[in-house]
Design goal:
about 40% strand, about 15% helix, 4 helices, Jelly Rolls, 5-stranded antiparallel sheet, about 170 residues, alpha+beta, 6-stranded antiparallel sheet, single chain, globular
Length: about 170
């Protein structure tokens, strides 16, 4: 089975995992969202109503596509499963940009797991030559549309003008 994984294309994974287009770019399918419900009371986050304890998705990005800048109310842990390296661009509330590599290139500083803190604006794209990357994203508390905010290009540039070229390239 291990050898077979190396020959699976992005579209093989999309079919195998019954993935659908994601609004921010790429492909996704829920892998788990049945955790018990609870009412989160965390000081730094603001939730309206109950949330699942956690949720998890498979997420696939093909080279040439990107996950557009967005922000979550919830911390998000990314897990790399297969394929090339992703670049994760994170802008914190002070305007500081951090670029991390997610994937199997440990010698080049990539990691297999990466936390994107809540309230961080972030976007993701495959590195040149990577083909595609298959990842997982786990949120705790679990995902809710109420906790997701897609960046509006002009508004984000107004807040972070220093990063305007990157924002223009990684927003829709």
């Amino acid at each position: 089975m291990c050898l077979f994984l190396n020959y699976m294309t992005a579209h093989d994974w999309i079919d195998h995992l019954s993935m659908k287009p994601h609004p921010e770019g790429g492909w996704f399918s829920e892998s788990y969202s049945q955790a018990p419900m609870f009412l989160p009371k965390l000081s730094a986050q603001h939730y309206s109503g109950e949330r699942r304890l956690y949720s998890s998705i498979y997420y696939l990005l093909e080279e040439g596509d990107f996950s557009a800048f967005h922000q979550l109310e919830t911390d998000e842990m990314w897990h790399h499963y297969h394929g090339g390296v992703l670049r994760v661009f994170m802008i914190d509330s002070s305007g500081s940009l951090t670029v991390r590599r997610l994937g199997g290139d440990a010698a080049g500083g990539a990691v297999f797991q990466l936390l994107v803190p809540h309230h961080t604006w972030f976007a993701v794209e495959p590195e040149a030559g990577s083909g595609f990357a298959l990842c997982g994203c786990t949120l705790t508390p679990g995902y809710s549309d109420d906790d997701f905010r897609m960046a509006k290009r002009d508004e984000l540039i107004e807040i972070f003008p220093l990063h305007s070229d990157l924002i223009k390239r990684l927003t829709r």
